[in-house]
Write a structure and sequence with these properties.
globular; alpha/beta; TIM Barrel; single chain
């Protein structure tokens, strides 16, 4: 039994929102774009930017209930005040996550709009987005988990708030693509919108991570979640550029805040930038970091800044999922082509 169990009220809320709880602190939820891919053949911006197949993406977090920040723009459920570093067995976490994904996908089997071969392909994820909710670097066996994902022929996209630099520095296995949320241009704005819970030095820790990034041998993305009137003023652009130049990432994503979920308690609809605002910001930022605006996705209000688009590499599997993880009955008889 865990020293700190997930709060039952929070668990009930997550389950009502169709999360499947994995172990004591983890969770899986079908991404909106996974549904769109299956039902309408649409792909998310990660597909457009990096070649990700949305129907093959597993969205999960090893700690859906814990985070050391209380970001005003976060639309997910608030996290537990108590904090425990989760140490669930990584292979168990992976297999339980895939099993949960298959269970969540099973309902699509009766929908005539969903191609059966595509649904079958979705049963075996090729990409793991470790970003669903909470701060994943609080999972003590994150490195082993990502190593197992790669061994099973899956890429890993790890999204972190960057305030635990020692965890990132000590990862024996790095994610295929590391996202660091750089959502403030300076300490004052960071404290106002990211709202550290316990450590007053969270901004300084984020700066440590930014300075660590150039030494990491993996694909790096700095993500700026932009909130109109809060962290995307004209005077902020050169400050973001200074941080990005220190990080020297492969890509920079400028993504608009969306007024949904719990963020509605903290921000207003007027804080949502239009896609044109994102493009204006991006075009001003790009020359300051010696990069170009490579692409954009209006449905997600996001732009991609970088030097060139390089599809994400998918590892060859050396391990395979066991047969007892379940699979939709409607596609069991099919074979993956």
């Amino acid at each position: 039994m865990s020293l700190v169990d997930m709060d039952p009220v929070l668990m009930a809320k997550l389950q009502k929102q169709r999360y499947h709880i994995v172990g004591e602190h983890g969770g899986v939820k079908i991404c909106h774009w996974t549904k769109e891919s299956l039902l309408r053949g649409r792909q998310c911006y990660k597909g457009k930017f990096y070649g990700i197949s949305s129907h093959n993406c597993l969205q999960m977090s090893p700690v859906v209930d814990q985070c050391n920040l209380a970001c005003s723009y976060c639309w997910r459920e608030p996290h537990m005040d108590a904090l425990e570093l989760s140490d669930q067995d990584p292979l168990e976490m992976l297999y339980d996550s895939v099993k949960a994904q298959r269970r969540l996908l099973s309902g699509f089997g009766g929908n005539d709009k969903v191609p059966k071969d595509k649904l079958l392909s979705a049963q075996t994820p090729k990409h793991v987005a470790i970003s669903l909710n909470g701060e994943p670097t609080l999972y003590t066996k994150l490195s082993e988990y990502m190593e197992l994902c790669h061994a099973h022929g899956m890429t890993t996209m790890l999204v972190t708030n960057g305030t635990l630099p020692k965890v990132i520095e000590n990862l024996d296995t790095l994610p295929t693509q590391l996202y660091v949320s750089v959502d403030a241009p300076n300490k004052q704005v960071f404290d106002e919108i990211c709202r550290p819970k316990w450590n007053a030095g969270a901004w300084e820790k984020l700066e440590e991570t930014i300075d660590l990034l150039p030494s990491l041998d993996t694909r790096i993305v700095c993500r700026h979640t932009l909130i109109k009137g809060r962290n995307m003023k004209e005077e902020h652009i050169p400050q973001y550029a200074a941080l990005d130049n220190r990080a020297d990432p492969d890509f920079i994503e400028c993504k608009g805040y969306v007024h949904v979920g719990n963020s509605r308690d903290n921000l207003t609809a007027e804080n949502m930038p239009w896609h044109e605002d994102i493009l204006e910001f991006s075009n001003a930022l790009a020359p300051l970091v010696n990069r170009e605006l490579l692409d954009d996705s209006p449905p997600s209000r996001v732009s991609l800044i970088g030097k060139e688009i390089v599809p994400i590499p998918i590892p060859e599997p050396t391990m395979f999922f066991p047969d007892d993880l379940g699979i939709a009955a409607s596609v069991k008889h099919l074979k993956v082509v």
